[in-house]
């Protein structure tokens, strides 16, 4: 199990399989690299396929500081630099999209080949001029309280909302196991930060080829979020997954893998 030291006291767990142009999968808040278990075998046949556990998530050791999207982006920059990666495709799901946008804002896209954004808003917060946000102050406060008082109970209610169809007990069990690895204190800190970050000012700066993957089911994120990003990010491609909610890579894995693969391959022709 490889770990990388990002700075003293901060180590990231990652899986690294295959050879070729690198593709890095970045998970959502509280989630882990295990959620990409249906992507790693497929992409590692033709790409160097990497899935990383962000600071304090999954198998990465807990760190009581730096649990912000901005710091996660800095961690990602060190991670890419230490592995000596070039022409990277970043695939960010949910909060992972914020990490990508913050990375682009801080470091630019010169080292990137493309980005894949999976089911995320430009901001999760319902700002006065952004009504499609996922959280208002009341709902965010409820989530913050729930993660402190009954982490497992909150996750049991939240995880099924990510899927169009009901989860089996087996599916819910492994997802609970993964998402319970993050201590409630850290879970609350990063939930707040990722919920109020507003990446709208960054979108017009993006000049990296971008694929937007959104589920049709709107339990968490509306399709309007993808349409907004498609309008704001020049040259982006929007793909709707009709049988998915928040996790098309798990709900329609074969189609998701093929769509992302075809997108990356199309860039080789230009």
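-> sequence recovered:
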């Amino acid at each position: 199990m490889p770990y990388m030291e990002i700075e003293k006291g901060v180590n990231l767990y990652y899986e690294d399989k295959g050879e070729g142009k690198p593709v890095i999968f970045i998970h959502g808040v509280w989630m882990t690299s295990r959620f990409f278990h249906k992507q790693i075998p497929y992409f590692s046949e033709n790409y160097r396929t990497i899935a990383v556990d962000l600071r304090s998530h999954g198998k990465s050791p807990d760190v009581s500081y730096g649990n912000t999207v901005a710091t996660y982006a800095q961690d990602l920059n060190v991670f890419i630099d230490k592995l000596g990666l070039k022409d990277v495709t970043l695939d960010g799901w949910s909060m992972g999209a914020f990490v990508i946008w913050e990375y682009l804002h801080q470091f630019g896209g010169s080292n990137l080949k493309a980005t894949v954004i999976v089911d995320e808003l430009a901001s999760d917060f319902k700002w006065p001029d952004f009504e499609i946000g996922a959280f208002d102050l009341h709902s965010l406060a409820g989530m913050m309280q729930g993660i402190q008082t009954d982490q497992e109970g909150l996750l049991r209610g939240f995880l099924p909302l990510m899927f169009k169809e009901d989860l089996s007990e087996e599916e819910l069990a492994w997802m609970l196991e993964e998402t319970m690895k993050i201590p409630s204190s850290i879970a609350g800190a990063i939930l707040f930060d990722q919920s109020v970050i507003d990446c709208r000012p960054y979108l017009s700066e993006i000049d990296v080829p971008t694929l937007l993957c959104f589920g049709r089911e709107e339990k968490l994120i509306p399709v309007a979020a993808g349409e907004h990003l498609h309008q704001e990010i020049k040259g982006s491609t929007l793909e709707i997954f009709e049988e998915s909610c928040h996790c098309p890579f798990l709900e329609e894995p074969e189609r998701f893998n093929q769509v992302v693969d075809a997108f990356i391959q199309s860039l080789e022709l230009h």
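The longest strand covers residues 10-17.
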